[in-house]
Specification:
Blueprint lengths: L1 H53 L4 H5 L10 H7 L2 H34 L7 H12 L8 H10 L8 H23 L3 H9 L4 H12 L1 H17 L2 H5 L8 H6 L1 H4 L4 H21 L1 H9 L6
Helix pairs in contact: 1-14, 3-14, 4-5, 4-7, 4-10, 5-7, 7-10, 10-15
Length: 297
């Protein structure tokens, strides 16, 4: 019996040893993979980091590439005291806030109608939705000439809100496309029960649809805001210096300001940091929103 017990103990010890070795190998493999991923992340993020750091250099230090330097806020003070740059920033914030808000105000009831409205012809809601989606494929360059003529004739290029009409028109289909799958996940029984109880469409949207799809609404609003913030083509071709946005300012920086690397880096940081911070704060909602409804059944 003692010999049998010793054999069992040796087998258990050997099995535990193998398990520890396997766990150690797995941990080492995970650590190596993590280091490789971190190295690639640092490699891709380094240009952005260097740009941000260059904003804290003087022009003489920024002209010579170097990682170690004496940081200063002189460059940021020059950039933030530039009235023209602040005006470009105000224009961008104006379009992002109003454009995103209008897209959501129009997109939520429009998507509700496409999903839950009772059309006379069966399948009309899906056909209208497909029409909205296909408009996303239209490149802005295809309609640039008629838009340019319209803006010039109506003097819209001198108005801050001129681009707002275009941003809403171009991004409303995107908003509807993002909201559609979330609204489709809302059980029709809930909507029918609310209608039987006497709820109006407004009460349905405000009291049931929005609370149940708030993650999708946040996702749609975030993506629309980022797209409007980064939009360059329309702003570059259809605005003046007084009505242009921040990406246009960055493109015209060398012509207007000169070859000042430190100031350009600080201005570019102002253009990049807000969407980066906003995306980092809302990344959980964004990931949850984009993956919601991916697996059904």
């Amino acid at each position: 019996m003692s010999k049998g017990g010793d054999k069992v103990k040796k087998a258990v010890v050997k099995r535990d040893s193998r398990s520890r070795k396997a766990a150690a190998k797995k941990e080492v493999r995970r650590w190596i993979i993590g280091m490789i991923i971190l190295a690639f992340a640092l490699l891709y993020f380094f240009p952005i980091l260097y740009m941000i750091l260059s904003g804290f250099k003087t022009e003489a230090e920024a002209a010579v590439p170097a990682i170690f330097f004496h940081p200063t806020l002189v460059t940021w003070q020059k950039v933030l005291s530039d009235i023209s740059m602040i005006n470009y920033l105000k224009n961008t914030v104006f379009h992002v806030l109003l454009g995103t808000g209008i897209c959501l105000v129009l997109g939520i009831p429009a998507t509700y109608a496409l999903v839950f409205a009772r059309f006379k012809k069966e399948g009309r809601g899906e056909s209208l939705y497909n029409w909205f989606v296909t408009t996303i494929l239209l490149p802005p360059v295809a309609v640039l000439i008629p838009l340019y003529i319209t803006f010039k004739e109506l003097n819209l290029n001198h108005m801050r809100g001129g681009l707002l009409f275009l941003y809403v028109g171009f991004h409303l289909p995107l908003c509807i496309w993002l909201l559609y799958s979330f609204f489709k996940d809302v059980p029709e029984e809930v909507v029918e029960a609310a209608r039987i109880d006497g709820c109006t469409n407004r009460q349905l949207i405000m009291g049931i649809i929005i609370p149940l799809t708030k993650t999708g609404i946040m996702t749609a609003g975030l993506l629309v805001a980022v797209f409007i913030w980064n939009e360059f083509f329309l702003g570059y071709n259809l605005t003046t210096n007084a009505t242009a946005t921040l990406p246009v300012y960055m493109a015209r920086f060398g012509q207007q300001q000169g070859q000042f690397i430190a100031q350009l880096s600080a201005s570019a940081s102002i253009s990049c940091i807000p969407p980066m911070i906003f995306g980092w704060i809302s990344q959980k909602s964004l990931i949850k929103g984009l993956t919601a409804g991916a697996v059904k059944g």
